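Continuing the series of single-chain predictions for the mutant panel. This is the parent chain; the variants come on the following pages.
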Amino acid sequence: MKVVTAFLQVEGLQKYFPIGKNFLGRPTQVVKAVEDVSFATERGKTLGIVGESGCGKSTTARLLMDLTPPDRGRITIDGQAYGKGPGRKPITALRKRMQMVFQDSYASLNARLTIEESIAFGPKINGASDREASTKARDLLDRVGLDPDNFIRRYPHELSGGQRQRVNIARALAIDPEIVILDEAVSALDKSVQAQVLNLLADLKAEFDLTYLFISHDLNVVQYVSDDVIVMYLGQVVESGPAQAMYSTPAHPYTAALLSALPALHPKDRKTRAPLEGDPPNPISPPSGCRFHPRCPFAEPMCAETVPPLADIGGGRHVACHMRVPGSGYPEVRPIVTVAPSPTA
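Parent structure:
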């Protein structure tokens, strides 16, 4: 049997945001934004991260880059740990191997810098000369489909949304990272432009041997680009595994509800009721046991009492649901039926 070693491995990532303080200055409550998130991916793969708004996707990305310092957790790239602690390299070393493309293509660029200056900034602070950094900026602009002679002296406000996002991708690649985090990187773009950027990302991935973490709420896009997917709910991972297997046979009721919420392509397949009712619980005081149990159609009393582990169910898949864990005490395994549409892009 072939043993595959994870290239990027994240273990026990956690972040609580304190809100309110007592007279001693201690927090009275915390928002449990990310709790015990663990996942891994191989070199050259694309890992999709999906879930409702507020489930912790973007916070997880910011924790990986240490833009928001994690409370605890371990991040390992190719066997080397990064962060604070013995035997770990500093975050500055991690950022040379991992970069991020943000959703807001305008806000993530410095309005006072030209396109050349924005792209060349990373190489310069990492020791490149002005000439080397400028040459790299021009080369990367060409790689992302923008004519350097036309764009190198422009400012962000002079570009369209799709052009700005191409510049952001070029900037992320300027220090030759091995991993790129794409946080809703195409969600603000028109569909035609979105398809162009997705194709560009596929070409760059093959050319530079990149590993992607692709965060999105668009399930069709995630299915199109991802090799593996993790599903988050209220700050926790509830299911993970190969994309096609998860889309065809979801193991967690929440995953099935997400897939059932996709728009039908045929009028006869129009849904008559919502696949998921209610709003996500308050992350300040999440439900006991399984956090999804107040909205789950399969919930039993034990679901409110015991936290389900993220159990291995075979085929590279993991799910946090008592219904899928043998010996958990759940009365019976019930079928979860949903039909996921074909990927479109």
